[in-house]
Amino acid sequence: MLDELAIDVAQEKSRHKEELSDVRLQHEKRCWACGRYEKELRGLHEDKNRTEEEIRSQLRDEKARTRELESLQPTVEKLQAQIQSMEGTKGMVRAQTQGSGEETAEKSALEHQEQVQKLQLEQTAQLQGKMAEMEAQQRATEKSFQEVLKVQAETVLDLQDRLKGTQIDDFQLMLDC
């Protein structure tokens, strides 16, 4: 019985040691996980701080731009007023110049028509001169062609006469023989 009790105590002690080592192992795992989570948490915290700083910087830039735009607002309003004033003046000037513009356009149209008529007359005269020149060249070419044909016909007749004369001479020679 003592042996059994010693065996039970030893088994209980062994089981207790195993449970204790399992608990220690789980504790170490949790500690490592906590360390990893703490590291991730620190990284996220640093990212958050960086992002906050960037947002603050952008906000400062936007505020500076807003102030600049607000300072330019009176200038914009003055320029818009000047533009409206100039548009009114432009309308008046356009009305005044429209009448004189129509007169100038009519005058220009008349001058243009006169120039066109003058150019047409000049071109007609030039064309007539060139036509006369081309007709003279054509007559000279035809005359030269007729002379060439005449010379050619004379040459052919002369050759025919010589040929006949040679044939007659040959025929007489044959008769003489």
Automatic annotation (TrEMBL):
The keyword Oxidoreductase does not apply. The keyword Nucleus does not apply. GO terms for biological process: neurotransmitter receptor transport, endosome to postsynaptic membrane; regulation of modification of synaptic structure; regulation of neurotransmitter receptor transport, endosome to postsynaptic membrane; regulation of recycling endosome localization within postsynapse. Residues 86-112 are annotated as: Disordered. Keywords: Coiled coil. One of its GO terms (cellular component) is postsynaptic recycling endosome. It comes from the Eukaryota. InterPro entries: GRIPAP1. Residues 34-61 form a coiled coil. This is Uncharacterized protein. It comes from Aldrovandia affinis.
